[in-house]
Fold this sequence. Notes:
Blueprint: H1 4-22, H2 56-59, E1 67-74, E2 79-80, H3 101-110, H4 124-127, E3 136-138, E4 140-146, E5 158-160, H5 166-177, E6 186-191, H6 194-207, E7 218-222, H7 225-228, H8 235-239, H9 254-258, H10 262-269, H11 274-294, H12 296-323, H13 327-343, H14 361-370, H15 381-403, H16 411-423, H17 426-431, H18 441-444, H19 481-484, H20 486-491, H21 495-531, H22 537-570, H23 575-580, H24 593-596, H25 625-678, H26 682-705
Parallel strand pairs: 1-6, 6-7
Antiparallel strand pairs: 1-4, 2-3, 4-5
Helix pairs in contact: 12-25, 14-21, 15-21, 21-22, 25-26
Protein name: CxC2-like cysteine cluster KDZ transposase-associated domain-containing protein
Pfam families: KDZ (PF18758)
Amino acid sequence: QDRYRELMRVSHQWRDLKHRKWFGFGHDSEQVPGQGGLAIFCPACPQPGINLPPDWRTQYSSDTVMRQYVVDGKFTAQHMKMNKPELDVSLSDGKGYMVSEAPHQAHLQQSLDNRERSTCSNHRAVNAANINKSNLQSTGISATACARHGCFVPHSVVDFQKGERYMNMDYSICNALDYHSQSIQKALVIYDVGCQWSINFQSQVKSSSSLLLPPGLEIIPAVGKFHLAAHKLSCFPRYSLNFVKGAGHLDGEILETLWAPFNKISPTARSMTQAHRQEVYDDHMRDSNWKKIVGIVPSLLKKYKTSNKCFEEMNQAYKELTAVLDPSKVTQWESDALEAERERGEALDIYLLKGDKAPTMGEVQLKLMKNPPSSSANLGSVAWLAEGISIEDAQDQLRSELRRLPSLMSTRQEVKVSEKRQRLSVDDVVTAQDDPAFLGQDDVEDEVEDEREFWEDDDEDWEAAGEEGDLAVEVMSIWMPSSIGTTKLTELGLHALVKEEMELRIGQANDCLDQLQTDLGNKAMLYRQNFQNAGSTREGTRTKKEIQKVVSQINKHARSYQRSRQAILQLEPADCIREKYQEILPQDLGVSKDVTEENRFGQGTSKMAWFWMMDGEQGQLTSDSRGLVEEFYRINWLKARARRDRWKEELSLVRHEMLWSTLWFESQKNRWEKRAEQSLEPGTEAYANKQMGLWGDFAKKARLMFQGKQIDCT
């Protein structure tokens, strides 16, 4: 006879009895587990009445004991609708990490579904909010975990019904902020779309009877470092963890690493009953937190070593930079930074580079046509130069297409190539620049020294396109001042052309760098968001094709930039221009590891490609250099100060966490010691003594390993 149902029922009851025994309810038999009563939390996070000294309110600042949480959703943890939900029986609803079902549903019923669309982030968090699948009871789950150690917060995991909606997230966050946080005045909440979520969060709490927060709690919203890359520029200073006082050094993405085990259990849990699925998820989160507890001592020791070293390096760099600056400027910047930390919001925009965006080629062309650089400028020269640059780009596009064709082309392919060459005909190339009124062709014909067209094609063997000896239209040299040489142009009295082409080439370079930043960002987002998380081979192939299209655009703009840079160098620019417009190397065009490996070690010393710093007036090399240099120093000093402060805070927090972990172990030991003394049965007394010894060993090891490093408890 099939006894599977009975076996599952016994397993259900056995797990519940084990959990109650582990958390002392076998001894405190008169007590019933409350919300999160069968869950274990982080030993290193500050918890009043558990692991903080009695005088912590006067001993610690609000920044030191600030709660740091990260919130995220998992959309593979789906749950199918039950055929007979009335037969489902739960023994521990809301007593672990997942919230109680009935109160959560009541909250959703009374909450307004605003159906907000994100105006900022490129991520799926809000834009997936209206996804609805009729066969699913829930489309995923959301969890809150401590941002510094990665422990799930008890009674804070919620189900999604139609994607990631704020009403679900609000319920999770409020439950987490209320957990063991009496008298704590400040909390940092890290969320993928924190800039959007934080706008209406406080008003939602005030208007809801099911959302409760500790009185007087200040909430600081932030965005994890990976997700911040997809936000608008204005979000960077306002929601970056780099500028949150008291945050220490963290990436805000630790919850992403905790989802990995759920990829293995989610398919099985998908068709379970509501109660069974809830208990399975509670078990795995309990196990995850237990592993964090077991490893907390070596983890803090490693963090101590890293933070100590990095603080010394960042402090030294800060001092060296401050030493070469005007003390009055430093005083003003220090005042601005303190005000920004205090006021936050728009005040944090001091970390953005001031100035307008670097001029585009079109803007430069319009400016030169309206205001010639000198009285010797020639009529029509600007349009002539711009046409030459446009032809270069068209030639490059055709060469790029030809490189992708096989050496032995089919008849159809040869026809298409001929059509494209006709569109970019020899007449177009020659006529566009032939015999301009201000250029004596006979004088300059022998002076053309243009090799930049072939810098990217050194390995290609281009064949003639027409009669023997004729060059293919896509490889013909274009007569430009940069290909003729400044010496010859000066002899001919055409030096004004050098200034005009220089301005246009700088505009061309600015255009290319701007497009490169956009395309590289798209490439990184496609790779991280779609390709790595592809649910099928078909989806992965489709995403790969999209990435290849973006890569083609990246290479196109990189080649165009290199041509403009080579032309700038041949025009003998000033040293400041030569230094600012650097060569783009192949490694500069790769996917940022801050996106694909966001949790790797060594992020604090990694560097971005130089052109990511080409923003605002930094690209306007013709602007007032004194104001520009001062702006660079201001930004670099502010960020050097922020890096020093975050590492200083990190070192201080780690030392405090060493003390708090030890006190947490001792509080667990004392709790079981009290249960042993009150035990009336030999069995319960023996188990309590065993648990007391376990936590006592943890505390003893922590005190020994942290000796001389942790903050003294005075």
